[in-house]
Amino acid sequence: MENNEKYLSKNEQFWQRIVWIAGAFSFIICVLIIVNYAQINRLDPINTEVINKLVERLNQNPEDNELREEIREMDLLVRKAYFTNQWQIRTGGYMLLIGVAIAIIGLQVIITNRKKNPQISDTRDQDLLQKQKITRRWVSLGGTLVVTTALAFAYLSHQSLENRFEIAAEGEPQEIEQQNISTEETVSESIDEDVADDLPPEQTQVVADNQNDSVTESTILKEEELESSVVTTSSEPATTSGEDSFTNFRGPGGNGISTQKNIPENWNGETGENIAWKVAIPLRGFNSPIIWGNKVFLSGAEELRREVYCLNRNSGEFIWTAKVENVPGSPVKGPEVANYTGYAAPTMATDGKRVFAIFSNGDITALDMDGNQIWARNLGAPVNHYGHSSSLMVYNDKVIVQYDQKNLAQILALSVNNGETVWSKTRDVKISWASPVIVNTGNRMGIILAAEPFVISYDPDTGNELWRLDCIYGEVGPSVAYADGIVFSVNDYSKLAAIKIGDTPEILWESEEYLSDIPSPVATDKYLFLATSYGVIVCYDAKKGTILWEHEIDNTIYASPMIVEDKVYLVDKQGIMYIFRVDKEYIPVAQPELGEKIVCTPAFAEGKIYLRGYDHLYCIGK
After folding, report:
1. pLDDT for 241 beyond 60
2. d(C-alpha 493, C-alpha 513), whole Å
3. CA 96 vs CA 22, 289, 339: distances in Å
């Protein structure tokens, strides 16, 4: 080495040290990733088995409040373990790639320098250099193998954790969950006899064929029969808008507040009390129903099959089913999605003349009120690890699409007439699953979006940015809420922020005590209501940020709270609706049960609630 060192320039010696340091650093990261994979498989940081056993014990003894509290605490630990481990895996992978990149750059500099300045040496030195060259080759091959192995283990760790988290989040063993899914996918062929006795013949539910999970001629009214039996058709003037319609996710502007009146407070899914009708939906989707006039719309999808459904709002009869196919640019293969997101998570939108739907593969379509396709296009296959879930919004003659993906984050406004891009803005944010909210802030309209690290408002007519504030981070799921000049943003493992908007937006207050990862908050001029997915409902003073009350429930919450009249409606995953007053104290009104798993936010119209379960759409009300 001493004989070789004399030929090395100071620059080359510097880069050699860099290569050795980067190589050693990369090797250590590789070892840590491999050890982490082994530890995950040996210890199970999510404690799936422990949670499942606790849930089994609780099922045997549902009155054990101490056990219930232990499960709730374990649920919090599960989520923290999951996100911490996922962060460690991602960070380790990035650090490994950076270390390898630096080592490669250093080697390239050394090789380039030697080519420019060849060294003349004796035969002994040439033999030594030849041996060093062979050694470097084997070291490079070995290093490549170690790095590849480490990256493979990082991927396997990520997938293993995600699968275990899904199982633990459900609180059921995998075998039981699979049985439940299988059972849920077998759609009942008729209403329960007790319910059927109480319902008139025209309200008999439409069912799906159990064998092929699709609606057949034997289970759905034929088109000719529907035309004669349905009173409201799309030829009717589209002027029935405001009062009896619910046109997008979370109601007007997507803000979680409905103007409907006389909404029911009591029902029973088991006995059929106050259940107007119940309809089986052929394809599963985790989007909420939307309503225009006498029609209710929703979508469903599988990996290679996408459909939009239109039902009579009064009877529950299918008016039409539209298949979304032959979309220009649509990818041949469906994307990978999480079980709790699925292939049809975004809620549709309507302007009264057209209905718009978007799916997990990036297909977006516009249909007329008879189910005929007006236009369809693909926005580019979404690149995210859960599946696309941002809902659509219509503003004047534009469809607003929040499309924050890993490869490209952007917001688009498409023409409702032909689907062409009216304007689009690239966003310097990370991936987000939140939906746009459009509100009148006093002197102008604004689209408000949340994605790490910003809450940003755009002019819906031009797409020009109105303001932004750096106040949120993480994988953002909840949409924002707005009331009385204040925007509320929240995300789990981030913070809850109240933003006072104006010429210069500023943080009014912040809190890190209760945070949501899925349900979106809802606000009035006095109160902010927030639900956590692990079952805590919280009321904040909207102006001061102080907690006025908190209320714990026993189940997971994925749906968002809705304010209707002076009450909040919030449904948990087990189908229990918590109805309570908009007040500084928790004042329960009712707690009716539907008897089917629910993750979708309800829609309201003309004194009725439209609620989508895992397999059925319900109309609640007389």
Report:
1. no
2. 10
3. 9, 46, 30
Question: What do you get for the CA distance between the two ends of the chain, in Å?
Answer: 91
Residue 445 burial (CB < 10 Å; 0-12/13-18/19+)? Answer: middle
Whole-angstrom Cα distance, residue 20 to residue 18?
6
Contacts of 3 (CB under 8 A, 6+ apart): 124, 125, 128
Alpha-carbon span 423 to 421, nearest angstrom: 5
Sequence-separated (6 or more) residues with CB below 8 Å from residue 228: none
Which domains are seen in the chain, by residue range? 2-182 (no CATH), 186-235+244-616 (2.130.10.10)
Cβ proximity of 536 and 555 under 8 Å: no
Show Cβ contacts of residue 62 under 8 Å, excluding neighbours closer than 6 positions. none
Measured CA to CA, the distance from residue 572 to residue 556 in angstroms comes to 6
- Whole-angstrom Cα distance, residue 182 to residue 178? 6
Q: Once rounded to an integer, what is the mean pLDDT over residues 227-242? A: 34
Structure confidence by residue, pLDDT tens digits, 147-194: 677 667 666 666 655 555 555 544 443 333 333 333 333 333 333 333
What confidence tens digit (pLDDT) does each residue in 582-621 have?
999 999 999 999 999 999 999 999 999 999 999 999 999 9
pLDDT of residue 217: 34
Instruction: For residue 355, give both structure tokens.
Output: 């209905």
What does the alpha-carbon distance between residue 305 and residue 336 come to, in Å, rounded to a whole number? 14
List the structure tokens of 305.
């099959």
Cβ–Cβ < 8 Å for 474, 493: yes
- What's the CA gap between 22 and 204, in Å, rounded? 70
pTM for the full model?
A: 0.68
